Amino acid sequence: MNSTNEGTNIGPYEERVKDFSWDAVSRELGHEDGAPLNIGWYCTDRICKQGLGGKTALIWESTQGEERKYTFDQMRLYSNAYAKLLQELGVKDGERVAIYLDRVPSLYFSLLGILKLGAIAVPMFSAFGEEALQVRLANCDAVACITSPRLARKLRKARPGLPALKRVIVVDVDDESKLKGDEMAYSVEDAPPVDDFPVFPATEETPSLLHYTSGTTGQPKGALHVHGSILSQYITTKWVMDLKPDDVYWCTADPGWVTGISYGVIGPWSLGATQLVLEVGFIPARWYSAIEKHRVSVWYSAPTAIRLLMREGEEIVKQYDLSSLRHLCSVGEPLNPEAVIWSEKVYGLPFHDTWWQTETGAIMITNYPGMEVRPGSMGKPFPGTAAAVLDDRFEPITEPNKPGKLALKPPWASMFREYWGNRTIYESKFKNGWYITGDRARIDEDGYYWFEGRDDDVINTGGHLVAPFEVESALLEHEAVAESAAIGTPDKVNMEVVKAYVALKSGFEPTKDLELSIMNFVRKRLSPLAMPQYIEFMDKLPKTRSGKIMRRVLRAMDRGEPIGDISTLEDE
Ligand code: PRX
Fold first, then answer.
1. By the number of CB atoms within 10 A of the CB, which of 208, 290, 424, 556 ranks highest?
2. Which residues contact 416 (CB under 8 A, 6 or more apart)?
3. How far is the CA of 183 from the centre of ligand 1 (A)?
4. CA of 301 to the centre of ligand 1 (A)
C-alpha cells in the first residue's frame, strides 16, 4: 500500500528521524526551560490564549442521543471549577484523586481540574467491580473520588477497604436523597464560574496520572506519569494522527485506559483539536451515524472493534456518508492484515497500526500517514525513539526477521517514572540500559517492526490487559474453589479471552450452575473483561514443587500441544 507524505504534518519520515529534538517540541509548545508545564493549563488556557476559546473542544453524545458541545473556554472554566472545588475540600498537590465515571463531560472537566490543582488523577474504568476498584484505590491511597449515582453504589461496597478515601463527589445527581453518608452532590455547570484559578506550577517531572495496568505477577500496578509527558503526546498526535485545525477527531478508547487519556484528552486538546466523545459503547449503527453526523475526519480505534465492524459487513457501511473520514489508526492488539485490507476496501482508507503501552505513555512504533503501510506490521519507531529487538542476553539482534524481546532506550518524555510504591518491579523492567516491554517482535530488512506475541502470561482481551493473578485471586474467593489458574485462550474477535482452570473443594460438584456462579462472581468483583468465558474443572492443577501453577502447561493443553507427563511437574 503506497502513499505520499505530501501535505502530512510529519512530512518525510527519514528527515524527521534525523532532525528530531525534544527542545524543538518544547519550543513548539511555547515552553521555556524551567517554566511551569501543567497539562491542564496546556489543554485549555493555552488554547484560549491562542484565540481559540470559542472553538468547540468537545462534542458529546449521551447514550440516549442527547448532544452537547463545549468550547475550549468552557473547558477552561469547568476544569478551574473542579480544581477549586477539590482545593476547598482540602485536596493537596501530589494526592491521588480517582475518577470513576462513564464517558460523561464531567470526566473530562474533572480530569483537567485535578491536573490544574497538581494532584494525581487516577482514572478507573467504569466497568470495574468493587474488588477491582478497591485493590487499585487502596494501593494508591486515593483521598477523593469523583463518581456518578450509578457507580457510587459499587464504590460504597469498596469503601470499607479504603480508609484514605475522605471525599466522594457525585456528579449528574437527579435525586440527592439517594446519596449516602458523606457523599456530596456537585454540578459544575450550575456552580459559579471560576475564571482564574492559580494553576499548580508543575515541572516536567511533577506526577500527573496513575494508570493501573496488569503485570505478570501480583496485583495490577500503577504506572506513574508526569506532566512532561505532554511533549510526547502532543508531537505523536500531531504526526501520527496528523490532526489539522479543521479536523473532527474521534478516539473510541475509554479514559479508564491509557489510550483514552493520552489520545482522548492530552494529545488532541494540546493541539486545540475538536473531538467527539460517545457515551455509548460499541453499536455499529451508532458509530457510523456519529461519523456521518459530526463529520469525523480522523478516527483512532482498536482491532477488536474493527473485527466486529468487519463482522457487521459492508451493507451497513453503504447506508452512511462516511466521506469525511481521511485518516484511520488503531491500537491495543495486533492489527491483522485482513483488517487493514478490509478497511481500505470499504472505507477507502487503511487503518494505521500504532504500538505502545501504558508504561510508554505515548505511541512508540507506528505507521505514519503518507508512509507505505505493510499490513500486519506495527510500522517504525517514532522519531527520537530508539527501539530494538534483544536476545536472551539483552543484546540487540542485528539479523533481520529474527524474533526477540522488544525493547526501548530510555528516557523519553512520556515514560512512566515508577510503579506506585513498587520500585523493585519498576527496576526489573530495565536491563542492560533498555526498557523491556514484555512483548516479542522482529524487524524486517527495511526496518518495519512485526509483533510476535507477548513474552509473559498477561492476557490481552479485546485490547485490554488482564493479569492472570488478579483473576486467580478472585476465583479463590469463591466458596467452591480450591485452586485456580487463568490463561488467555484464542478468540476470533477479542484475540484472546480468559479461560480458568479450577480445582474444587471437597463437597462441590462441577456442574453447569456452579460454572455460571463462578463466572458471575468474577464478573461482579473484577469486570466483564476479566470474567472467564470458559471454565475447565480439574482434580488438581499442574504445579512446580514450590507451588507455582504452571500456566505454560495449561496453555499447551488448551492449544492441544504436547505437554509431556504432568505428574512429574510437582517435582520440577
Ligand atoms: O502486548 C502489547 C499490546 O498491548 C500491550 C500494552 O497494553 P496496555 O498497556 O494496556 O496499553 C494499550 C494501549 C496503548 C502491549 O505490550 N499492544 C498494544 N498495541 C499493539 C499491541 N500488540 C500488537 N500490536 C499493537 N499495535
1. 208
2. 223, 224, 225, 358, 359, 360, 361, 426
3. 37
4. 13
